[in-house]
Inverse folding.
């Protein structure tokens, strides 16, 4: 999968020519000075494109990371940092919109929005297409080490199996962790039922002695290095991890899983909104999307980039980056919940982690 750099280099010239006609170039809409502060997930961009943006626009990129939607929300809500571009997930974008924490975008400064596949537009988290531009999508699954686990894993039940005690990793946030338990129990990821949430909590409490660690980005390193045997993680990262550890396997759980879209937004009060829109426009360019897909293994929202990239994938990578209808039908998208439900999730998670 990762041997497309030469192909992408060749495509770059073609894409730049096309950009003249399709409005793909970022230079015409970008400022010539100033800065833009971008906060993204870890390992979720080809950082060479940041240099490319700086060279094309003269805008300096200050680049930083967050490890969960909840961490990003807390930082924004408490004024702990000032960002110009953030890349949260669907349900968190909906929450940020509801709470008035995002700027409306000026799409006159983002002509490359025309390159975004229609299937990513007008989604429930931003139905009027005012606050976000889709970046990447993917699914959550189970990654496990086939030398440490002999059985073929098929579902979430493996994360609750006492045979794997001390080798199990779990997500370190309430929506994902409780979501896994809810799916295993046959419930929706988006339930607001107190009874169902208490049942999911009881399952996680039973699982807790089996868990090596509650982590986020560290799941990547722990599974890749063989420090742990099994855990939930993102399909795109799996395609990167197997380059260094071919003993890893990935499965979409039979009970269903989360399908997500991450999108680029501008937080309320950004001091560099024009530069932020220039950056978002640049990130939609086909050559930039190709470079990012090749580096991180996720599915770009740019339709042209996906069409080009799909032609070069092997069977496994294609199945992961472009899931079948059968897989999609087993997926559910996280939605923003009522404040009362969010409080229940947070309270149960705090109780689980504290042991109270």
């Amino acid at each position: 999968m990762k041997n497309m750099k030469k192909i992408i280099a060749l495509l770059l010239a073609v894409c730049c020519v096309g950009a003249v006609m399709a409005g793909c170039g970022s230079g015409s809409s970008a400022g010539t000075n100033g800065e833009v502060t971008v906060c993204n997930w870890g390992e979720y961009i080809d950082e060479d494109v940041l240099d490319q943006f700086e060279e094309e626009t003269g805008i300096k990129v200050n680049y930083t990371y967050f490890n969960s939607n909840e961490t990003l929300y807390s930082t924004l809500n408490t004024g702990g940092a000032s960002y110009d571009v953030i890349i949260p997930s669907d349900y968190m974008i909906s929450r940020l919109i509801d709470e008035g924490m995002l700027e409306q975008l000026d799409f006159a400064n983002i002509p490359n929005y025309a390159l975004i596949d229609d299937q990513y537009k007008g989604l429930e988290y931003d139905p009027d297409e005012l606050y976000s531009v889709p970046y990447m999508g993917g699914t959550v699954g189970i990654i496990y080490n086939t030398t440490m686990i002999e059985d073929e894993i098929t579902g979430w039940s493996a994360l609750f199996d006492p045979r794997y005690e001390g080798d199990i990793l779990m997500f370190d946030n309430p929506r994902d962790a409780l979501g896994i338990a809810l799916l295993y129990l046959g419930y929706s990821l988006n339930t607001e039922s107190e009874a169902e949430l208490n049942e999911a909590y009881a399952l996680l409490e039973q699982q807790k002695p089996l868990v090596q660690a509650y982590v986020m980005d560290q799941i990547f390193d722990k599974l890749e290095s063989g420090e742990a045997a099994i855990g939930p993680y993102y399909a795109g990262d799996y395609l990167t991890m197997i380059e260094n550890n071919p003993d890893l396997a990935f499965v979409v759980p039979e009970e269903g899983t989360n399908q997500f879209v991450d999108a680029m937004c501008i937080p309320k009060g950004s001091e560099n909104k024009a530069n932020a829109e220039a950056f978002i426009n640049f990130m939609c360019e086909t050559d930039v999307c190709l470079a990012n897909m090749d580096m991180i293994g996720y599915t770009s929202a740019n339709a042209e980039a996906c069409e080009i990239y799909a032609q070069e994938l092997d069977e496994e990578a294609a199945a992961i980056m472009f899931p079948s209808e059968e897989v999609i039908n087993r997926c559910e998208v996280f939605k923003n919940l009522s404040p009362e439900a969010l409080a229940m999730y947070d309270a149960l998670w705090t109780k689980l982690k504290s042991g109270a």
Observations:
- The chain has two domains: 5-132+265-321, 138-259+326-354.
- DSSP finds 14 helices and eleven strands in the chain.
- Residues 49 and 288 are 7 Å apart (CA to CA).
- The first strand starts at residue 35 and ends at 41.
